[in-house]
Amino acid sequence: MPKRALLLLIVLCLSSLALYASGPLTILKSTLSFEREKITIYVEYPLVSGTENPEVASKINSTIESDALGFFDYFRGIALAGVDEVMTAYAGHVSYEVVLNTSNLLSINIIYYEFTGGAHGMTEMINYTFNTTTGERLKLEDLFKEGTNYVQAIIEEVVKQIEKTPEMFFDDAVDVVRESPFNFYLAPDAFVAYYGLYAICPYAHGIPEFKIPYELLRDYLLVPLGQ
């Protein structure tokens, strides 16, 4: 049996499936772990059910599952290759948060953490926003009216929030925000723009997130949100 198929079979057999959040879709939790001396890996990711079209659930699940299992394979590989050469332990962890679950939209943040030595580990948050009617993963441009200057509107709101507490950010944070792309997720009451660790503020402040109420973006939105 191919390695990927065997790994998927293990996941399906050993996953602990539990209701994570109420809403139009049922979100189930699947887990996968690996542990040996100086290596600990724990991967937790969501699977959806409750769609009228099974192909939609399959499309959403395969997108998320591919990345989660990819991290598991990647981190196990580097940990096994390097563990005998270092004194420290390796730790990899994947967790998630369902931030929006409505009748036609699903937005989930998956947090990837890895520690391979040094003062601290590194965390990356990746958002997965789906149209739950089609199963398509939505990009930023799918949410806004074509021809509108929505990117600039979002950036200006981020700049205003930075300028309210400048002591939390690097001196060049505003310049970075104006020149660099941002990530996003959808919350029930706001569009949230976020940046990576170290991008605009010290590590101690974590992943910088900026909530922008949908009302401020009403003229630009193609998809009805916050109603």
Question: What are its keywords?
Answer:
single chain, 227 residues, alpha+beta, Heat Shock Protein 90, Actin, Chain A, domain 4, 2 domains, 5-stranded mixed β-sheet, 3-stranded antiparallel β-sheet, 4 helices, 8 strands, flat
Category from helices, strands and their pairing: alpha+beta
Q: What helical percentage do the residues reach?
A: 25-40%
- The level 1 CATH classification of the largest domain is Alpha Beta
Question: Main β-sheet, in a few words?
Answer: 5 strands, mixed
CATH homologous superfamily classification of the largest domain: Fervidobacterium nodosum Rt17-B1 like
**What is CATH's topology name of the largest domain?**
Heat Shock Protein 90
Order of SSEs? HEEHEEEHHEEE
How are the strands of the biggest sheet laid out side by side?
A: 1-2-3-4-5
Q: β content, as a range?
A: 25-35%
